[in-house]
Specification:
single chain, alpha+beta, Fructose-1,6-Bisphosphatase, Chain A, domain 1, D-Maltodextrin-Binding Protein, domain 2, 8-stranded mixed β-sheet, 5-stranded mixed β-sheet, 30% helix, globular
Amino acid sequence: MSLASDIALATHLADTAGAAIRPLFRSAFAHEAKPDASPVTEADRAAEEAMRRILHVEAPRDGIIGEEYGAERPDAPRQWVLDPIDGTVSFMAGRPIFGTLIALLQDGWPILGVIDQPISGERWVGALGQPTTFNGKPARTRSCRTLADAALATSGPQYFSDHDGEHFMALAAKTAHKRMIFGGDCYNYGLLASGHVDLVVEAGLKLHDFAALVPIVEGAGGTMCDWNGDPLNADSAGQVIALGDPARLEDVIEGLACHH
């Protein structure tokens, strides 16, 4: 398949997921806790089921890695990675800053990503070697003169281990911490790609949380890597840096290293 047809398929998946999610937003939906205590709703499951049905027809040889229903054909070189609602807590609270994440991996490396916010109708699409778009128009990160000017975002302190949290707070102290943003999950990375946020730092992410973000951030002029500065792929541990201005990367990694 060509990249153009892959992008068309990914946007079709996003449309379908959105159609499953929208009727349940701010309504009396069913929900329960997963074994790790994180919540899952009928909207998460309906959206992932709808996307899987399409992939079974349109891309039957490709693998699928989904947050709710696990992996199919794990040995296929191409893997679609689905997170039907990234930010379930925001969804349940009626906050329209969750998103559907759709990624395509080739041999474990993210080559295509979509962040779709189905309530506000906002969509970021990134693909290897192509400029990232936001609702069809080019998205660009902004430059950041010094780390002290950087607006930093993260999903929340509760997602860090004590050790990672210490490193995060050491970095946060060097940024524009009065402008720090908590909450937002994938939406923060879209905002970074569009030049509204400078830096997102997280830990404990799974592949379905970050795979789609990499092509979007990089295609907008930013950079994504782990806390050591290594590129992200299917084997990454889940410590993530997204940075709008790659010139600040050394400062960020140094800030996280937290020399006591």
